[in-house]
Amino acid sequence: MNPARRPSPLVLALCLCVSGCMSLTPQLQPTDFAKLETIKDRAEREKALKENWIFRHEEPQGTRYTKGLHPLSTKRSWQSLDAILRSEKNSAEALPYKELRRSRILAALGAVTGLLFIASGAATAREGFDFQKLNGANGVMLGSVLATVGLAIAAGVYYRRAEKGYARAVNIYNDSLGMRLGLLTPNGDYIPPADAAVDAEGYILTEDANTRIEEHSRIRRRVRRSRRRRRRTRPRPRRTRPRRR
């Protein structure tokens, strides 16, 4: 029997690119939604929302993501969102599988054409490249260069689409997390506590409705008094009549 051959590193790299898996990238911890839905206390649900929320951080190298706002948490790229977004049904369905797979396939083909360019360049190193007299090796080198550039551009386009798709999936994950905890409406609006005082625009004034109403009326009185004082102390502009010529 022939001994089993070990696959070359090039074949392994191409398989990883085409498969589209992100197991080599450190992933954010998936969320246990079944456990979160059993929380009854309002304060605990608020805490769980902050700990499992995906936050965005604008860095010089691009947008980075963290789960929660722990000071020691590492800010990671969008490739690290695969596991946590798959843990929620709605965000998992919104993942751009096709765009990511096409981007990786085109990147793998671009790597192959790049190797053809290197091989053809080594084959024609002695003769040189002549546009007027193209032979087989020169034609392969020219075609591989054009194919590599075209595949790289196409892979970059699908890569950007996949990144935007993951950003949309993050919004869906956060909305679903808030809805399951009973803290957000389907429109993404925050649901205040039952005993909270809310103004006409929906902003929470305080947790205690009775106390806040009295304080709010006092603040309004102070604002009105300060406005009256400003009007009294403000100098009136002098009216000047136009001179007759």
UniProtKB/TrEMBL annotation:
The keyword Membrane applies. Residues 1-23 form the signal peptide. Keywords: Membrane, Signal, Transmembrane, Transmembrane helix. Residues 219-245 are annotated as: Disordered. The chain crosses the membrane at residues 105-125, 137-159. This is Lipoprotein. It comes from Nannocystis pusilla.
